[in-house]
Design a protein that fits this description.
Blueprint lengths: L15 H5 L4 E5 L5 H14 L4 E5 L9 H16 L5 E5 L13 H21 L4 E5 L2 H5 L5 H9 L6 E5 L5 H6 L2 E4 L20
Parallel strand pairs: 1-5, 1-6, 2-3, 2-4, 4-5
Length: 204
């Protein structure tokens, strides 16, 4: 992609403009940190374009904090008060549907995760958001809590102009195959290799 130019032009009958503005399915996977960071950077760009941003974090603990949450909630409030950027909704599994909201079996947690996915699927059908960030979403797929084929079908056939970015390790092959952009974060070097634990502003 020299100077942002595609290496090939497909014979798909689309104009350059139509092809450029096609909604994308993006997957950030791999063992190294940075998957969510990159997804939230993308969401920041989308907010600046006025997109409606929907973040859905599939994390085990409702107490788990990331710095981006406070920032994006503030951006949502800024949009409401001034009209700048776009609206933001941040849904952590723990606010409505969560396997951490109460004690339960793995079956209970799986059912809660599935309920979360079904809510996302309903929003996609209703074209609620311009960009969906499904953070750490590969894990309930890996554990078999949510059917991968169902997810792929919903995402591939989503209506309108809705971008979706999914983060997490071990992205299933069917999801990778369906995606338009896949990046794998691989480790070259990490402070933990030298015994240094995570720190504020870097890991959270």
């Amino acid at each position: 992609m020299p100077q942002g130019q595609p290496t090939a032009v497909p014979s798909d009958g689309l104009t350059t403009r139509q092809r450029r503005n096609r909604p994308l399915l993006l997957v950030h996977t791999g063992p190294m940190k940075g998957k969510s960071t990159a997804a939230f950077g993308l969401a920041l760009r989308g907010w600046n374009q006025g997109w409606d941003i929907g973040v859905f974090q599939f994390v085990k603990s409702a107490k788990w904090k990331v710095g981006e949450e406070a920032a994006f909630r503030a951006l949502g409030e800024l949009h409401e008060s001034t009209g700048q950027g776009g609206p933001v909704q941040w849904h952590k599994m723990g606010e409505g549907w969560s396997w951490s909201r109460k004690a339960g079996t793995e079956e209970d947690h799986a059912a809660a995760a599935l309920e979360g996915w079904r809510e996302i699927a309903r929003r996609i059908a209703d074209e609620r958001h311009g960009l969906y960030v499904l953070d750490e979403f590969t894990y309930p797929l890996k554990w078999g809590w949510i059917d991968v084929d169902e997810v792929v079908e919903v995402l591939v056939n989503r209506p309108g102009h809705q971008h979706v970015v999914i983060t997490g390790r071990d992205a299933p092959r069917a999801l990778v195959d369906a995606a338009d952009l896949v990046v794998e974060m691989t480790k070259v070097k990490h402070p933990m290799d030298a015994g240094q634990k995570g720190q504020r502003g870097i890991e959270w």
